[in-house]
Amino acid sequence: MKYTLSVLVENQPGVLSKVSGLFSRRGFNIDSLAVGVTENPSISRMTIVVNGNEYIVEQVEKQLNKIIPVVKVKVLQPGAFISAELAMIKVSCSPKQRVEIVNIAELMGARIVDVTPTSLTLQSSDTTERTLTLLDLLHPYGIKEICRTGSIALEKGADPTRKA
Amino acid sequence: MISGAEIMVKCLEEEGVSVAFGYPGAAICPFYDFLYRSSIRHILVRQEQNAAHAANGYARSSGKPGVCIATSGPGATNLITGIATAYMDSVPLVAITGQVSSELLGRDVFQEADITGACEPFTKHSYLVKDPAELPRIFKEAFHIASTGRPGPVLIDVPVDVQQAQVRSFVYPEKAEIIGYKPRTEGHAMQIKKALKAIEEAKRPILCCGGGVVLAGAREEMKAFAKASGIPVCATMMGIGVIPMDSPYYLGMIGMHGRTTANKAMQNADLVILCGARVGDRAVSAPRQMAEKARIIHIDIDPAEIGKNIPVDIPIVGDIRIVLEKMAEQVKNTVPQEWLDKVFAYKAEALLRGEPREDSVEPRVFIRDLSAMMEENAILVADVGQNQIWCARNFNVKEGRFLTSGGLGTMGYSVPAALGAKLAKPHRQVVAVCGDGSFQMCMCELGTMCQHDIPVKVIVMENQRLGMVREIQDRLYQGHHIATHLEGNPDFAALGRAYGIRAEEAWSNQQAKALAREMLDSREPFLLVCHVDPDVPTL
Q: How many other C-beta atoms can be found within 10 angstroms of the C-beta atom of residue B201?
């Protein structure tokens, strides 16, 4: 099962390696990790998607908390958060196929960001699930390159993760 | 104006550091130049790893963080095993390393090593200092982090140009402010209540002391709680010494090399109260099985330990001293006599092994003799291997300490750790016990002992074997003895004398006992070589 963790860290050198090193040395599997600064410039938020069971996610949470620059760790409850990831997909596309692919893009809420005589590049920001659907739909045309950021997530409502 | 190097020394002085263990090199020279002008006593070890072990022994004996220093590159990498040893046993250490100049970082220049990176898995926290103005905050934080919560080693890596750079002034912060670090010390009242109820309901309860009890300074609280509750106590290797071996309610050490009595009691209990014990595989081989048969209460200051190795019914996160004190106030003695009869029947079955010998020194008998001769508050430092288990099972720690590398199992720990312990407690007897394998990993420290006049007593159990590995080869590898015979040992006594240390050899238990008396009465360093039959088993 996949778990999404929202981790607030002090914005200092080495913190990313401390977090990623923890995953590798304790044998936890990381699906994706995305980092960016928060409303407070000295704090960054890491959104980490972990594949595992309850025992593993509890250990991940506790071990993350032991890292000194980690300020807060929260395992987000399914349904109680919104998440999205940015994906760029370069797909083979002859001029004849262009309309079909543009249709798919429209259907899936993706934007066309680059066009060449032989390819189209789509940009989508959506949930991981819908990103995967988009990839499935584009697969028959021949996907040349993909770049994905991994999920970022925020809790729904007025109760922010910042609150201790 | 003041230099980074001077600030570093001032920070140590502000922290009340009186002894530091180290080995200099080019990249740490500016710091040493100010140490030269300081009243801090510097102990020059003979290899950097031993600086960390000595700081470890010092920290465990004094209760204050130990300080060790090394230069960049190989100096720093030599420290790693010592840092990892301290990490596994949760010993507060502040390790300071020199580093190549900031502008050369990452270019693989002479004696450069990414030591903060290399030590990541073995440090509680680490710093690579980029700005000399940050030094006071970093030192304050380092000592705070090392010594609070679950203690551990903290590394400060300081590039040589940061040591040389000048800043305007030096102000040492009053306290460390770290937003992500607030260890919880008070146990949750609700959880304590639940634990007390479980104790009341239990028919076959047992207490298990780990190293956390010693680290928390909770020996008296543990004794008081055991007395008030009437629950029999066992210990892991790191928990040895919390309860004296001859206490009526003490069952002994658990685990692979533990006492059958203690293991049987653990296996048959219906309530196990783990106190600062992380349920390592050598202590509890089948934790899940145990959790199926018994309810588990786990008291630990590190929340990450709870549920890591064993499923827990009632977790209590907090300082063991505080938690046990609270629990002792409220607990009632409700332990059924039937259980106590059973447990103490196990204890009566346990026989002391070994008979005194005339042709060699029986090590188990000798350790019991030594134990009887030593002062109540003595510090025994055991190395790793058969000698460690002989000591753990036969040495009775009363008011003193039993120091050993329990977690990482680092051979060569004993002599340097004993040096550190003796400096922390100069008026106590400090004896290191090692095998001929482990002694050869740290015997260079005889030089340190002589140079700095540190009267540590060293006992070498010489059986010309790496005895514990040899036993594994006998048991699991059809007796294929490879790389476990130590032919080529020097004459250890002559080696001791070459350093100017009094050294004696014992060939029988009677002789060993008499020499141990002389050793303990002597005010100088002393090396006692005991010739041991290689066939004497570990248990």
A: 12
B205: β partners: B271
Nearest to B307 among A9, A58, A72 (CB): A58
Q: Which residue of B has its CA nearest to A9?
A: B180
Q: Which of B99, B134, B179 to mutate to test the interface with A (most CBs of A within 10 A)?
A: B179
A92 within 8 A of A119, measured Cβ to Cβ: yes
Q: What is residue B216's three-state secondary structure?
A: coil
Q: Which of B120, B145, B303 sits opposite A62 (nearest CB)?
A: B303
d(CA A149, CA A22): 21
Nearest CA in chain A to B144: A68
Residue A16's H or E segment, with its range, is helix A15-25
Which of A68, A72, A74 should one mutate to test binding to chain B, selecting the residue with the greatest count of B CBs within 10 A?
Answer: A68
> What strand order describes the sheet that includes A2-10?
A29-37, A43-51, A2-10, A70-76
Query: What is the topology classification, in CATH, of domain B189-349?
Result: Rossmann fold (3.40.50)
Q: Which residue of chain A has the CA closest to B116?
A: A14
Q: A13 CB near a chain B CB, below 8 Å?
A: yes
ipTM of the assembly? 0.88
Q: Give the CATH number of the domain where residue A137 resides.
A: 3.30.70.1150
Q: Is the pTM of this model over 0.90?
A: yes
Are A13 and B128 in contact (CB < 8 Å)?
A: yes
A57/B contact by beta carbon, under 8 A: no
Q: Is A160 exposed, middle or buried (0-12, 13-18, 19+ CB in 10 A)?
A: exposed
**Cα–Cα distance, B520 to B513 (Å, whole number):** 11
Q: What is the C-alpha to C-alpha distance for residues B241 and B325, in angstroms, rounded to an integer?
A: 19
- Give span(s): CATH 3.40.50.970, chain B: 2-167, 363-531
What CATH number belongs to B2-167? 3.40.50.970
Min Cα–Cα distance to chain A from B221, Å: 27
- Name the domain boundary from A28, A43, A76: A76
**Mean pLDDT by 10-residue block, N- to C-terminus, for chain B (539 residues)?**
98 98 98 98 98 98 97 98 98 98 96 96 96 97 97 98 97 94 90 97 96 95 95 96 90 92 93 95 90 95 93 96 95 95 82 90 97 97 97 94 97 98 98 97 97 97 97 96 94 97 98 98 97 95
Total number of domains in chain A: 2
- pLDDT score for A27: 87
Mutate to test the interface with A, among B181, B184, B305 (most CBs of A within 10 A): B181
Identify all chain B residues contacting A45, using CB atoms and an 8 Å cutoff. none
Look at residues B234, B84, B111, B93 and name the one whose alpha carbon lies nearest to residue B152: B93
Which residues in chain A are contacts of B308 at CB distance < 8 A? 59, 62
Q: What is the DSSP string of B83-105?
A: HHHHHHTT--EEEEEEE--GGGT
DSSP B434-457: EEHHHHHHHTTHHHHHHHTT---E
Q: Compute the distance between CA of residue B58 and CA of residue B64 in angstroms, rounded to an integer.
A: 8
Alpha-carbon distance B354 to B467, whole Å?
A: 17
Q: Which CATH number fits domain B363-531: 3.40.50.970, 3.40.50.300, 3.40.30.10, 3.10.150.10?
A: 3.40.50.970
CA distances from A40 to A4, A8, A37 (A): 22, 11, 7
